[in-house]
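New to this. Comment on this protein:
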Amino acid sequence: MLKVEIEQAGYEKKDSAIRLIEFEVKSGEILGLLGSNGAGKSTTIKTILGLLKEWKGSVTFEKGSRYAYVPEQPVFYDSLTLWEHLELAAAAVLGDEEWEERAQELIRYFQLEHVIHNLPSSFSKGMRQKVMLITAFMLKPDVYIIDEPFLGLDPRATKDFLALIEKERSRGAGILMCTHVLDTAERICDQFVLLANGTLLAKGTLEDMREQSGARESSLLDCVDAFMEQRI
């Protein structure tokens, strides 16, 4: 669904923030993008989205596929209501009438019926995050690129989000999810990519990570800690 081969990428010429990063997101697979603050996760996502001019390599989506991006910090138009944001996103991508039914279903699912005609700028952080998730799930893309989805979500919303992710995985969607919540990542992700200092440190399944780190029969957190200690 998505193949990433980044030789180097940065924000200025001759200044590479990331380099030598390669991975694939397959149909029906959740890939966890891991790393500490400053490891290069956000720069990698920006490169995939085509937001950086200074980069070398290739980012290839499967022919005819569509993707949806859920940013860490929700972004809205000040003058548009929740419903108007969904209407705008649907008009730009879907061009059909099915979106209304899907949108209403997702609004009920995330319990936002009472603010459907309100401005998201007045919402709490968790509510704003729900709107971004509703927009992405409404579009039913082939690939999801999700940056820190759990920030601001309460336990119920987190459970609801994970249930939808599983449903989309079953549909065949590929999911790239950047997260610091390693216990949840360990439970739901099929593969992992660990970045450090702007480059690829490790990748593979949990068993691969255990083998490569030497932390056999350990948690994902222990594996990541072992990798980091090896770099010191």
